[in-house]
Amino acid sequence: MKFGVITFPGSNCDDDLYDVLKNTMNCTTVKLWHKETDLQGCDFIFLPGGFSYGDYLRSGAIARFSPIMDAVIKHAERGGYVMGICNGFQILTEAQLLPGALLRNVGMKFICKNTYITPVNTDTVITSCLQKNKAYKIPVAHAEGRFYASEATLDEMKSNGQILFKYCHPDGTIDDTANINGSIENIAGICNTSKNVFGMMPHPERAASEYLSNTEGKAIFESILKNVRA
Amino acid sequence: MPDTFLGIRKLLNWFNVTKELPTLETAQKLGLLEIEYERIKQILGRTPNFTELSIFSAMWSEHCSYKNSIIWLKILPKDSPRMLAKAGEENAGLVDIGDGLACSFKIESHNHPSAIEPYQGAATGVGGINRDIFTMGARPIAQLNSLRFGNINLEKTKWLLKGVVKGIGDYGNAFGVPTVGGELYFDDCYNVNPLVNAFSAGIVQTDKIARAISYGAGNPVFIVGSATGKDGIHGAAFASKDISEDSVNDLPSVQVGDPFMEKLLLEATLEIIATGHVIGIQDMGAAGLICSTSEMSAKGNHGMDIWLDKVPTRQANMKPWEILLSESQERMLVVVKKGQEKTIQDIFDKWDLHCAQIGVVTESKNLRFFMNGELVAEVPAYDLVLGGGAPQYHREYKEPEYFRKYKKFNINDVKQTNNYKDVARYLLSHPNIASRRWVYEQYDSMVGTANMTTNAPSDAAVVHIKGTKKALVMCVDCNSRYVHANPEEGTAIAVAEAARNVVCSGGIPVAITNNLNFGNPYVPEVYWQFVGAIKGMKKACEKFATPVTGGNVSFYNQSADGGPVFPTPTIGMLGIMEDVSNHMTLNFKKAGDLIFLIGYSKDDISSSEYLYSYLGIKESPPPHFDLNEEYNVQELIKILIKEKLINCAHDVSDGGLFIALAESAIAGNLGFKVTSDFRFRKDAWLFGEKQSRVIVTVDPDKEKEFMSCLKSSRNLLTRDENLGVEIIGTVTNQDLVIDNELFFTTWEASDIYNNALAKLLE
Amino acid sequence: MKYIAEITIMPLKEILDPQGKAVKSGLSNLGIKNISEVRIGKHISLEMEASSKEEAEKNAEMACKKLLANLIMENYSYVVKEA
């Protein structure tokens, strides 16, 4: 089991993610430079948060054409695991490995704070160690995180169990006031139809250390280790 | 029109037509004094041409030369065993933090650019301060900022604030360094001239420190980063001019920031420094290329030949002086060991960055600038720079009329209010006191996964140094109302409060950086404030053993119509926490804990937000402050934290004891029940801002141990037997109760406190 | 030949445009009351060499489709003219 964390120009959560995978979860992890064209035999590829290419034009739109993305797309098509967090999620929707798009937050401001999310489908590689109806405190930091998909796409996603996380209150209830960025149906994280490509706006790597007094994001990494290692 | 930029344009046209050498009149239009012009002629042994005159005007401007402040800055303490680079020696101060690591940190202002274009002004301020840090080889790990605006009810203030906050956020967030703390004040005195001070701190291995120096004849000189445009030409001089409505027309002096470029520059810079092939490197800030070439050369006792036509430009047909003085952002000058050009080039190619050799280091001590083979300027590096030939002036100072008047304030002339609840509500929602949430949620405060205060709030920011047990503890502080009331005392309070915040968070104060925001130094009453502030800072820094590692002076913070701003010497303090298990937080932990007030109370409401804003009495001295008492209180807090005897610590500052208690309750989602002290006026006890006080909570099981620790620490606080420590109440599950009167439910207080700023701004 | 493609990219009609909404209320605060809708998009101008106008249009079309617009949330239009 080998993890790869891609560094795009402007990525800024690559080190944080690498640190959690390597030092907290004790996994073999390498950093992959966006100009490379092979994935060095990695089984699970992470696209980290940040501002790839300065978020110019649209978040993720330019990084989606980085040389390494051809290999990432092929990896995903072969059933390999790919997960994007924040800007990584935006890149994956731009590359159409994930459905929908991420728009400017309804409040139009960048938001960085602790939020609560609850798993909708606990039957996937990244959510199996999570408890349904439980709220997990995991922070967000984005200006363009409002998930949007057409009605038809959304229906399809629902019937396939592709909606993974929703924004909620600390007690797990889901309503409009918990919807920090105006995402359609409070959606905070999704996967593709074959459930090997994942994307979420909140940052689990920012909630995985005793130093930060918050380890609620670790359950996501534990799920991955449990499922992918086995 | 007193417009330097247009003035230069006109002069240049004239010069191009006549090819005559400029006169004293030109020099004066460039902002040089007659004696300075004469000195330049003496230094060169001839009459300077226009390019040379522009060079001197930029380098001898207030911004680059500190000519009106350096004499006084020299009296500040600079030494401590931890100091690796002293004030003024490098781009930023450098402090040894053990384990083979050093911390580089600095604060810098971008007041005038932000007054005109708040978004870009603030953004480029953030960019500039971070470049100062990473050009030393340090990776920035934390940013703070100190902001001051005018009356919050003015539309202009809202526009400025929103622009500044968005500018700081958009730049810092993309750059990928967390903004972990700061301060925000409103006062009418900042209506025209807001203050925007940005602080950054970074970590470097002590064997990878880079210097701002140039030597070794034949070594190539590179310019890297963005192309050079006609940005901020004479921005340095612009920064040294009184601001007026007319300056709005100076818009070309405002620069546009590119955080994406800065992020690439950061990574590439740290990579080239790690190769060991870099002789020296400096950011291009104020006065651009001329500043970095002269400062690096002067420090290394060498010269340079620079081919200006090799500088990549964004605009066509740029004149030599435009290239030399351009302040285009995200550029750096790098001197590399000869023969290693390719190594360096390859790294910049990897990051898709421009990198061009524009010159070579020479044996001579002169800077020679060529354009298409023609020598366009030749100046000695040493004579341009601070510490070299740049002028230094003593300025006249005089105690202002108001000072004596303020001292006459007597609390007995103020009738006590009988509506404490109304005052409490007023203060909780006051824009100078209410939660800064509306601001800080727009900043990425968590990138880097090292900010320990996200889920464990404390008086200062605490940032873990990964791979160690240590943390940096940082804050920015200055109550400029106090400084205005008494510059010496007020500045000592600013240093003391910064130290108190560091100590209450579990850190040990180590050093400070200062951002001295004042009015026009040629006004003797303003200069008196400056001199007083320096004296107060010296006194306090010596007491807390926190040398001044550098910083920034910003004069001319005044409007043509409104007089000077409050003197605002912002203190950026760096502390160290040797072991993160000493991290102390400010939130109440559990019902039943005993609340103690450490430090004496007094019948003192001077300069409090209560007196100044609620009662509208503007003329009073700063609150009572005694440096020795302050020191003792901080020493006692250090012991209590080390002995693990307290559950929380929060200093009493703006809004007084009531606000301190409310903040701890709101942060802990708990309540309190306290009894006021009959020996004092109740308004003074609740809302007075007498200094050197801290509230702490103690587990009832540990009360005995706590009391005996106080006893054994008696020699610290020597005024009387009980060491100035009083039990004032207990933590409860909910409700803020004083003398058995319910002031607010915790939920209500929290709602008022947390949403006040948003309500005022949206 | 040198051509310039003037490209307009707009958020899809059905998608909420918070920026447009805010500007609309700003206009109304200014006293400009009769505005029924504001939507904010992007204007991009491309300068290019092409052998014919048709080729330039093909390039502009490709640029829009592949990179400049995200068809899930935006549509585009362009006008190509000789520089």
Question: Secondary structure elements and their pairing?
Answer:
The complex is a heterotrimer of chains A (230), B (762) and C (83).
Chain A: E1 2-7, H1 14-24, E2 28-33, E3 44-47, H2 68-77, E4 81-85, H3 87-94, E5 101-103, E6 111-119, E7 136-142, E8 146-148, H4 151-159, E9 163-168, E10 187-191, E11 197-200, H5 218-229
Chain B: H1 4-18, H2 24-29, H3 34-44, H4 50-59, H5 62-65, H6 70-73, E1 83-85, E2 93-98, E3 101-109, H7 111-116, H8 118-134, E4 139-149, H9 155-175, E5 179-186, E6 195-205, E7 220-225, H10 235-239, H11 259-274, E8 278-283, H12 288-300, E9 303-307, H13 320-325, E10 331-336, H14 341-350, E11 355-362, E12 366-371, E13 374-380, H15 381-384, H16 401-407, H17 420-428, H18 437-440, E14 461-464, E15 471-477, H19 480-485, H20 487-504, E16 508-517, H21 524-544, E17 548-554, E18 558-559, E19 563-564, E20 568-577, E21 594-598, H22 609-614, H23 627-642, E22 648-651, H24 656-668, E23 671-674, H25 682-687, E24 694-698, H26 703-712, E25 725-732, E26 736-738, E27 741-744, H27 746-761
Parallel strand pairs in B: 4-5, 9-12, 16-17, 23-26
Antiparallel strand pairs in B: 1-2, 2-3, 3-6, 4-6, 7-10, 7-11, 8-10, 9-11, 12-13, 14-15, 15-20, 16-20, 18-19, 21-24, 21-25, 22-24, 23-25, 26-27
Chain C: E1 2-11, H1 18-29, E2 42-49, H2 53-68, E3 74-82
Antiparallel strand pairs in C: 1-2, 1-3
